[in-house]
Amino acid sequence: MKLITAVIKPFKLDEVKDALKAAGIAGMTVGEVRGFGRQGGHTETYRGAEYQIDFVPKVVLEAVVDDSQADLVVDTIAKSAATGKIGDGKIWVTDVERIIRIRTGEEGTDAV
Amino acid sequence: MDSGDTAWLLTSAALVLFMTPGLAFFYGGMVRSKNILGMLMQNIFAMGIISVIWAVIGFSLAFGGDGPLIGNFDYAFVYDIATGPGMAFFAFQMMFAVITPALITGATADRLKFSGYAAFIAIWSVLVYSPVAHWVWDQGGWIFEMGALDFAGGAAIHINAGIAALAVVAVIGSRRGHGSEPMPPHNLPFTVLGTGILWFGWFGFNAGSALAANGVAAQALVNTHLAAAAGMLGWLIIEKLKTGHATTLGACSGAVAGLVAITPCAGFVGEMSPILIGLTAGIVCYLALQLKERLRLDDSLDVIAVHLVGGLLGTVLLGLFADTAINADGADGLFYGGGLELLKDQAVAAAGVLIFSGLLSYGIAVAVDKTIGLRVDSDSELIGLDQSQHAESAYQA
């Protein structure tokens, strides 16, 4: 079991979701987050006073998938989230020790 | 007063009342999200407390008798007003009394203790606003007698509230973290909404000040609109030149600066004057933003740059642009053959209000601060006014 975490541009979320659904993913969790990477922040000006905004809005997306699906999911996200410009985000893959479906108590691949 | 005049004055009273919630949103959009209810509350609360004070004593101290410095008690407790100055005039002036102390709240944003604020504006309205309104608008008032002009409150309202704001900030100090952490506006759409309401209500404020449904009222309405428009342009032009962007907040600020500056002039000038006055206000008020850095004061939402400087500018420019061809009850300014007489009177009027309101406002603020407390403690300020002062949150997580 792998946990796939991706930080992407917010406006790309729908595209990524549709691509993952088409690739057969069973579910995912998303959240609105703020952060910075190489893209850095930006400057805003209010009544002549400049403010450096360090954190830019991003969407974090998490999905637990079977080992055999992991590469496909990563590739799908990488393709659908890409704009080619700085700030497209990152994807990382983590080993998952255990997974349980709360309603039924199923574990492992059955719970994905 | 005929039925047309009465109808327009009553309509104007309603328009001016609407400016106070407009001001609440204008300011509210600029504060941090934890303080928006505190800001909205300070403004609408003025509608509550000042209206009652106005009925009990405020109107009488402003418009009773013919003394040079202050009114009397003839109209206290809404006595004899209907047969004297009239209920329409009472209602119209009440809305001015409401919004004037509310203007101060922009300078003191995010840190006023509610009980201290309530006490401050109650005392301020009686001791500062009523006498100044008397000076400027009552037949016997010394500014009125001297011949200085203030159509709708450049001195009585904007200079008065602006210098009071400066005085209160001098007493309570800066917001925690001012200058070291960013405090950008949390909801500029609210500020745009508030600007629209203010602009709309200002037609009642200025054109209503003709106290009649006549040509002067129409002239004042057109002047008000043109000055707001030109104020927006002036601010945006200099902002674009200085920072590279024309901002939404700049458009709103410029329009309000134009509205403030045209307020004393509204029924006394014509032709291109409102556009020149508005344009000047947009530019000068933008440049005046630097003042608070120089003075090292945390005038949080720029009441000094917009209301004090805009009010001073309009009051003085009237000494140049006033034209008796527009309003025979006015005077001629320097550009219309009146010489320096009016300009001198305008400057004396402005200085009189500055000194009186500045000193007395400072004194009241110190007194309230020493007794009730005018500023919240550090914890309350960190939590925000919404929770610490009112036990509410504007936005549920």
Structural description of this entry:
The complex is a heterodimer of chains A (112) and B (397). Chain A contains 2 helices and 6 strands, in the order βαββββαβ. Chain A is α+β, with helices and mostly antiparallel strands. By secondary structure, chain B is mainly alpha-helical. Chain B has one domain (3-390): Ammonium transporter AmtB like domains (Ammonium transporter fold, Orthogonal Bundle), CATH 1.10.3430. Helices cover 67% and strands 0% of the residues of chain B. Chain B has helices spanning 3-28, 36-63, 87-104, 114-137, 142-146, 154-172, 188-207, 215-243, 248-262, 273-288, 291-295, 303-321, 341-371, 378-383, 385-390. In chain B, helix 2 packs across helix 3 and helix 10 packs antiparallel against helix 12. Chain A binds chain B through residues 44-53, and chain B through 182, 184-185, 239, 242-243, 245, 247, 249-250, 253, 286, 289, 302.
What is the element layout, followed by pairings?
The complex is a heterodimer of chains A (112) and B (397).
Chain A: E1 2-8, H1 13-22, E2 29-35, E3 42-46, E4 49-53, E5 56-65, H2 67-80, E6 89-95
Antiparallel strand pairs in A: 1-5, 1-6, 2-5, 3-4
Chain B: H1 3-28, H2 36-63, H3 87-104, H4 114-137, H5 142-146, H6 154-172, H7 188-207, H8 215-243, H9 248-262, H10 273-288, H11 291-295, H12 303-321, H13 341-371, H14 378-383, H15 385-390
Helix pairs in contact in B: 1-2, 1-3, 1-7, 2-3, 2-4, 3-4, 3-6, 4-6, 4-13, 6-12, 6-13, 7-8, 7-9, 8-9, 8-10, 9-10, 9-12, 10-12, 12-13
Main β-sheet of chain B: number of strands, strand sense, barrel status? Answer: none
Alpha-carbon Rg of chain B, integer: 20 Å
What fraction of residues of chain B sit in β-strands? under 5%
For the largest beta sheet of chain A, what order do the strands appear in spatially?
A: 2-5-1-6
Biggest β-sheet of chain A, characterized?
4 strands, antiparallel
Q: State the order of secondary-structure elements of chain B, H for helix, E for strand.
A: HHHHHHHHHHHHHHH
Q: Level of helix content of chain B?
A: 55-70%
